Amino acid sequence: MHPYNPDRRQLLKSSGIAALAAAAASSGLAACAQTANKSSAVSDGLNTDHCTPARNPRRTLGKLEVTALGLGCQGFGQNMYGVPQPAKADALRVTRQAYDYGVTFFDTAEAYGPFESERLVGEAVQPFRNNIVIATKFGWDIDQTTGQRTGKLNSRPEHIRRVVDAMLGRLKTDRIDLLYQHRVDPEVPIEDVAGVVQDLMKQGKVLNWGLSEPGVQTVRRAHAVQPLTAIQNEYNLFHRGVEKDILPLCQELGIGLVPWSPLAMGTLAGYVDENSRFSTEPGMDLRAAIPRYQPAALRGNVRVIRLLQTWAKRHTCTPAQFALAWLQVQAPFVVPIPGTTKTRHLLDNLGADDVKLNANEWAQFRRELEAIPVQGLRLPEAVLKFSGVEAKRK
Ligand SMILES: NC(=O)c1ccc[n+]([C@@H]2O[C@H](COP(=O)([O-])OP(=O)(O)OC[C@H]3O[C@@H](n4cnc5c(N)ncnc54)[C@H](OP(=O)(O)O)[C@@H]3O)[C@@H](O)[C@H]2O)c1
To answer: Which domains does the chain have, with CATH numbers?
Structure first.
């Protein structure tokens, strides 16, 4: 039985946190044997005081050990997909609950807010900072005092140093476990970026580093100067672009792969159909500007969601669990970071660890998936132009 099946999900929807506690208590997830983490026990109405997660699968990114699922914390800093930014207390609670349920990998970025997500993560993890991995990202041109953005990239060495110092303050820590370049800056040789990161490592401010949405040659050049721990790219049932080059490259070089938007911006969680329309109010829902989710494209693309729903039902799990489990079986070094601001979604997602299909079943699912052509770009063109970029040669 998966810790959080569709029936439980319905129950939770209808009766809130009390039902959540009951559901969690009766699930494998909360089969608690001994006292462990107590970070959120008091404040959230969910009794985690006595919880040791029943299972806590681990994976390695490069040489960095993390849990098989992380927590994406972008939504704490800004409204992205029609979900209002949570109150501070809720963001702190969800982060601490994630830890209570075994998650040790938290993903943020200076750009989320900007700064607000980092601040909240930093505060939330204080009681257990030494037991977890914090990943954050630099690379956009953001004024560290005012938060003002130019919309451009900035990976100039002096800027990276300034950003990292500011990040350490926001995260209330003395080191960043995994520091990514958010997007490759075509104007700065990646060797220079790797060199600065190397210096920051020597100073103990950064422990590991990675790239997000990089060009393939840039990965090789960066890795040659300072070995990369992880690449963070979009990867989900709708967008499997990494399979062409980045996934095999990660395998070849021993780099981990962290899929962002593993639920395709929530679209794979089961609530989107061909009639779904996303708010066009400024700053409300990025999907309103994404070609893939426009009405005409969605009419065809919804076949992926239907396929997912069918398979999830067959294997007694939720669509989100199935979508995350599918990513996990692609390679042992793949670690999705679903983003959520809700306890019930966190618990739902953690159930992915228990979805088990045999190799033939996964192969059959892939055949059916690949028979569906996905229409429309995965991001607005203006955003997509920052992906797959090669840094200038030295
Ligand atoms: N490197 C990059 O360029 C980049 C880009 C984007 C994101 N990221 C990172 O990747 C993380 C995840 O990506 P993402 O947030 O874009 O997309 P995602 O994880 O695919 O989807 C997040 C959305 O799904 C909803 N959701 C999550 N679990 C759910 C469930 N079980 N049932 C129903 N809805 C569910 C969330 O809403 P609720 O809050 O209501 O649960 C949220 O709106 C981010 O938090 C961020 O850390 C990195």
So the answer is: 35-384 (3.20.20.100)
